[in-house]
Amino acid sequence: MNKIITDDNVKITIEEVLGNPDVALIPDSVESREELLESMKRYLMLTRRDRRFSDYYSVELYGCTVPDMFATMLYRFKGEGPLPAGESLLISEPDLYYNKKRFDEGKINLCFVIGYSGSGKSVLTREYEGDNLEKVELDDIVCIKDHLTMDDLKAKGDMLYSFFSGVGAGYYISREERSMTADHGEVFVKFIKYAFEYAAAHPEKRFILEGIWTYLFFDDPSEFLGCAVFMKGTSLAKSKLRRLKRESADSAEVAIDRLLEFGYYAKDTALHDGNVDKWRRFFERQEATVIKPEDNRFTSLRMSIMAEINEINRCFVHGDEDGIRSIMERAEDSADMDRHERRIVMEECKKALAD
Q1: Is the pTM of this model over 0.70?
Q2: Sequence-distant (≥ 6) Cβ neighbours of residue 316 within 8 angstroms
Q3: Segment-wise mean pLDDT, segments of 10 residues, the chain, 355 residues
Q4: What are the extents of the domains in the chain?
């Protein structure tokens, strides 16, 4: 615990960073899965501004962002050996698309895209554009008053504006107005339930909600069977299920053995694993789910984007607005970035300047 970082020529110890209530890190000294999950929840409860600080310090201390550190430590607690820090489990594993065909055909108009920060949710949905489509980043609704006015919400989409100007008006608050004793997860539960009602009342439009919050606050994934669900990243259950499907096709005897093995495994993980694995196992078994591996280009794209975002966070922490504007200008003029990478980096710059 003697690591130090230099912040504006001032040496800061890891103890000082961990003791800051506005910063949430996952140290490499985490001793249990429960402690790990609590650390990640603290990070997700932060405002977007404070998550930038947290990711900056995490990269300085551990070489990766908080979500990547979470994936690394989670893998260790699964008992299959450590994954090198910075090499996220969310890159190399397949994505799950549940009810994608029905969403594409317009038979379903509400889609949840679930994955950790930086996992590529925006890239995954880049094929969906148009005037009749609304995308909502659930991360943004934490203390939303700090970075979006009501006019901004109206311009951003009818669903967001309708919620915060109506039944969710009490959640249109700033960080200063937030009660430290309130249930900070309540806004996500209320908004997601509202999204079900709003989408049902507006079948002429399509809605995409992006964020990890459905994992955390909804224990029963069957509540989402009537929607489309796209899931980034994977879990230990993924490799077990694929092995089961492959080997159970050999013979009836092998099939029974594997089914029994998977039954014990599923029971154990249902008791001890978190909601991420629970959701993945549930949707992996659905006939309407398509499993699609990520390609190498996606991995390269994510690494390139994360390098830019880490630099944006560094400028943000040090109050270097000119540096952020320089990154945005460089992205706008870059011939090496494709339009999707350019758009993501420029949007991140705009958010950092707004924060």
Answers
A1: no
A2: 52, 53, 56, 324, 352, 355
A3: 50 70 82 82 85 86 82 60 38 75 94 73 73 85 85 90 93 80 76 96 94 82 95 51 43 45 36 62 86 60 77 88 90 80 86 87
A4: 1-87, 92-235+273-293, 237-267, 295-355
